[in-house]
Amino acid sequence: MSWGELIWFNGKLVKWDEAKIHVMTHSLHYGTSIFEGIRGYATADGKAVAIFRLKEHMERFEHSAKLIGFKLRYTVDELCEAVVQTVKANGVSDYYIRPIGFIGKEEMALVPSTTELDVAVGVLKWGKFLGKAYYEGAKVTVAGWRKEPQDVTPAQAKAGGHYVFSFMTSLQARARGFDEAVVLDHRGFIAEGSGENIFIVKDGVAYTPPTYAPILIGITRNSVIELLRNELGVEVVEKDLTLGDLITADEAFFTGTAAEITPIVEVDGLKIGNGVPGDVTKKLQKLYEDIVRGKNSKYGHWLAVVNP
Ligand SMILES: Cc1ncc(COP(=O)(O)O)c(C=O)c1O
Questions:
Q1: Of these four, 11, 235, 297, 303, which has the most CB atoms within 10 Å of its CB?
Q2: For 212, phi and psi rounded to 5 degrees?
């Protein structure tokens, strides 16, 4: 894992080690930031980077700002352009792209003199987020911590502070020797993974938690719903799922920008289906891989192709 050399910082490209802020910055103390995780894939000919669903990511960034109460000095189009410029400046590679908006003031009042965000974009050369689990399937545990309800905090905002919770569940899973955690909501229904949405497949139908559940409304999730319905002819139902539904499913998988489509094969030592990645999951992985690398022209409109 290594960073691209240049970072876009409030409108200028600067060297990685020059993109600095002070230790007394508001965001560092209170988690007052929003961010996105976007992937850019080197195209099959090795000449360009295809950024997956860039506009949808920057629209979610704008929505996250609105939900928390931050002001953005850039439009969605300007934010997309910032990402494109960052990728262009760093050259062709596979990237995990990280735009972040934060309160950059060195002020300790909870509500600082301005809620306008500083914005930066960095690019990371990052392989498979869950390592070999992408190929072999993830062994997951059920997190001890429950996701707080939508009327406590808006889960659909991708806000820095929310990720203290994701950190805790992720850490707990790793401490217990698992690849990832499955998180239940306050009602006991399945919400999502620490940093992924979740699907199960049972008797040929795919199910995923609904958007009223406390989940991040994943851009990969939404893309996968379309692909299951329109390309694989699999019915998709958005409904509350119990742990029992997951354990007795034929197959299950995570979706996310970082995790892409990662099969889930075990929950706390109990095998899902045969305990190996399922057929629908494997078909979806292949379809998704082709789409993100620009090999499937039908979904070319999901990609912003950048020629460095
Ligand atoms: C908590 C959480 N849920 C779900 C997702 C998946 O969202 P997306 O597919 O937009 O990356 C992520 C990752 O961004 C996440 O952090």
A1: 303
A2: -80, -15
